[in-house]
Write a structure and sequence with these properties.
heterotrimer; A alpha/beta (about 240); B mainly alpha (about 350); C mainly alpha (about 400); A: about 240 residues; alpha/beta; six-stranded mixed sheet; 10 helices; about 25% strand; globular; B: mainly alpha; 14 helices; about 75% helix; disordered N terminus
Amino acid sequence: MPLLKVEGVTAGYGTMEILRGIHMTVNDGEIVSLVGPNGAGKSTLMKTIFGLLHPRSGTITYRGQPIDAREPHEIVRLGLCYVPQVDNVFTSLTVEENLDMGGYLLDTAELPQRRDKVYAFLPRLRERRQQRVGKMSGGERQMVAMGSALMLEPDLLLLDEPSAGLAPKLVDEVFDNIERINATGVAVLMVEQNARKSLQMAHRGYVLANGENRYDGTGRELLDDPDVARLYLGG
Amino acid sequence: MSAPPGSETALTAADPPRLGERLRAAVQTRAFLVAVVVAVLVGLYAGGVAAGASAEHLASLTAWGLMLGGIIALGSIGLTLVYGVLKFPNFSHGALVTLGAYVTLTVMALLPAGRALAPLSFGYELIVGVIVAMPVVGIVSLAVDRVVYRRLRRTNAHLVLFAMASLAMLFLLQSIIYLGWGPEFHFYYPGRPNPALALPFGIRVRADQLFILGLGIVLMFAVAALLEWTRMGKAMRATADNPDLARIRGIDTERVIAWTWMLGGALAATGGTMYGLSSQLRPEMGFWLLLPMFAAVIMGGIGSAYGAMVAALIVGVAHQVSSSFLNPTYGPAVAFVLMVLTLIIRPQGLFGRPEG
Amino acid sequence: MSQVIVLKGLMLGVALSLIAMILLPPGRRGRIAGGAVLGLGLGFGIAATMPPGYLAYLISFLVMASIYAMLALGLNTQWGYNGHLNFGVAGFFAVGAFTSALFTIEAPTGLAAAYTQVAFGLELPFLAGVAAAAVVSGVVAFLIAVPVLRLRLDFLAIATIGIAEIIRLVFQNERWLANGPQPLRGIPQPGRCLFQSARCDWLPEWALWLVEPLGTRDYNAFYLVIVAVFLAATYALVERACRSPWGRMLRAVRDEEASAAMNGKAVAFVRIQSFVMGAVIMGIAGALYAHYMVAIDYAHFHALFATFLVWIMLMLGGSGNHRGAVAGAILVWGVWSGTSFLANALDPVLAMIHADMAGRAHYIRWLLVAILLAGVVLYRPQGLLSEEMRVSRYLRDGRGR
């Protein structure tokens, strides 16, 4: 059974329809990359999976369980975590408080050891743990956001544009971190504007355009496909 | 709309700043706001001296101001938390303050009268009254949320509709108070003497006033501890900061909002009772406190409970000291001046974060 | 028909015609003629058939409803067209009322001066008082607008509710200004002498027979005509102004401030203009109120009566729609007046619940209007008549959107 299965999902805001019958699956331990031009509906799909937006038709299941009618705080309990593209940290809280909010569903007694695990994984956060996140740089905020999402030790991590707006050196670091997370057995579904790089890392990928599926295949296949390369990867 | 400070620095990076921009950048700092607030306070004291008030009198006024500040603070904490989480000015909060005072009165009437806990003027029944009034008002404010504001939240209604609905709820609760208790003044202990204690430096305060200040400080620390160290407190701050992210992180924001209303209502009830104890109960007492409370909320920075507490003390002192040379009913006007100064100089207040 | 009935019918008819012209659907050719026929017909019909007591009630109802309609029009210019969340209508209403009173009143002398203190009493004619009310209210609005209008929407609401409260405090405390906590009495009424036994000295001899049968009790019908003329003129003015390029600019600033600014509109100045214009209308409404009441005091300008009710009227009628604002005002004033009968009817019920509650029935009216506003906000936030998306009078409805 796939971890996450999206079947024929149509969704949008108000009268605007953004997703039109999307199909997609993510299996245990995979990195799946969503690529496509601006406005293809990648971020909307992420939000719909996470219950911030409810589909008008179609189903979304997680381990066979339907989640399309659930609220975000219920979906987190199932073992999915989501890092939005923007506003993904609590700026008025400290690093440690952000991590605690990431582990909000945990027993309070468990928090310290989970925090230690995250600190071991992202050591820079430990140095900064009493600092208010609002005063930190973009790269550090991204790290806090990812760290908070790891607090629940999810089986599936949704990342929306994790490298957006970061300096090239930091982009490499972010991709490095994603591979390390994946190596611990966490499946990752990511949206990236840096399509070539994310497909190189991904096990599989989906190309979306205009709210519809266009191509899918392994990361390699998509990279080698001349049409995909010409239309969506900039030649 | 004034541009957030951040965008200005971006602008000025390219061009050398014009004089107006540099001036504005200098004015919009916390230091400047503090300086202006201090200047207003100094001006008020100077006005008192000019009107011939003695040093002892001014010292007593300051003490009374701190006490009034404690009352305002109890009211503003709920107001600022709701403002921070739900992003609308809740005008009906004034009526919750009034309701708390009257619920205490009714509970006291049901209890057998006890002796005064000397040197305080009140007996055990007032304390029982407050303890009952806190959850009652908390539940009322939660019920109003469930019936009105939650529906608006579900439809993503515009801020204006929230503000309008809260105005409606202000008059609704006030009319219920008028219906239930009538327009006349009430006292918790009609005619009971309450002599002032003579403290050092010629300060004259009543024991009740010291109790009010003490209770205010204790509750303020309790709220601070709640927000700083408990799970629910942190969730409240997180929800105020970024409601969508809070939901993504697994926080049931509706539950957090419910607790925010309960807490705000309970503190408003305490504030109302203390206000009633220090003067008398009037159906419009909470409406009268609305301006000082909003002044404290805005000066302290919306959503910041600590900020509201500190600013409430400033507002309370300014309010009382101004009465040394102004008609005391102008108190809300003094609070209003402080509020408008804050809004003009630095809308995010003394303790708020820069926007954006 | 007796002469009294004809005269009363004529006055009521003229007033009703003017109101009917406002309320009839716009854009039809027969609006003015139809309004005149309908209003005059109704006026004569009512004057001929209705018992005098009811007629007097109807007339005083229409006077107050028209004054509130003007407040609603003023608020609509500010909120409906330019998005100012003004919760301080009461303040401008009070400024207008007291200004006009002071400009027209006779300054008391001798013994009376001990009981009634005023800063000045100029004994100017009614229209000068109204003009002064408009100017002073506009100046106050301008002084407030400069620091406050650049605030965020919610801050503006808090600030304006505070300003109105402070204005009320000033009129309550400052005895020297307008008799402080005591009512300011003896505000003159325009044309009052027409109805008194000693007729106006300016009235020509030949016209005396015309007003001969009228008594002081009939004065309100005459005042209703004055108020209706002001209402119709205000309506025509704001309707024209809001259909003009200026009105389009107001809406542009309201909806898309940034793009209006990028299109070269002086956004800050536009916002001040509409705020001041709304306040001027509210000030005129205040003047009309003062001369109607003859005696006013600070308690008349409570937020409930002078701000809250006006907002309900505008919200119910439909903000951004002047016709809706007037209709909402008449409707809500009807509900408010009607609830006074209901409250009386409920008095015994309250007395059964608790003896103390018997005298408090009129607070049920507050309760009901608060529920009414909550209901409008929850179930019909766009009001009964929603905003007309009219771009220009040269284009048909709905085009250009």
